[in-house]
Each structure stands twice: as C-alpha cells, then as structure tokens.
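Lecture 7 notes: from sequence to structure.

We start with a single chain of 71 residues. Read the sequence below before looking at the structure.
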Amino acid sequence: MRATLDNLPDAAWRRRLVGIHGAAEYVDKSIYEIRRLVKLGLFPKPRRPNGRQWSWQLGQLADYSDAIFKE
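Now the structure, written as tokens:
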C-alpha cells in the first residue's frame, strides 16, 4: 500500500481515508487487534462516513505509528 501512496502530495496523502483492512496493513496489526485497541481507547478513533464502516485518515495512522515506535 505504501508504494502506491508515494506519488501523492503529502497533504493529500494524510487526508486519504482507509478502512479497517487498510489500517491493519498500514500499522501491521490484525483487524481484531485494532478493534480491541479502539475499544480500549489506545488507537485513533475511527470515522464512520456511512454510519457503520470504520475509516481512518492516513495521517492519523502515521502519527500513531510514529508514537508507538518512538517509545
């Protein structure tokens, strides 16, 4: 996924929405782990553009990854 995002400008890249499968791939966790972390408040809060499906902006996921790997 990251290879296809390299061609986007930084501002556009950070605003792009991905679903739970894309988020799981980006942060290298399972969808079950992401659901658990969201429930515990340890993962960025998802958006729900259509009421049910969880989505995140890639910028949120990048900030989360940076914070996790910085520790």
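The chain has one domain: 2-70. Keep this in mind for problem set 3.
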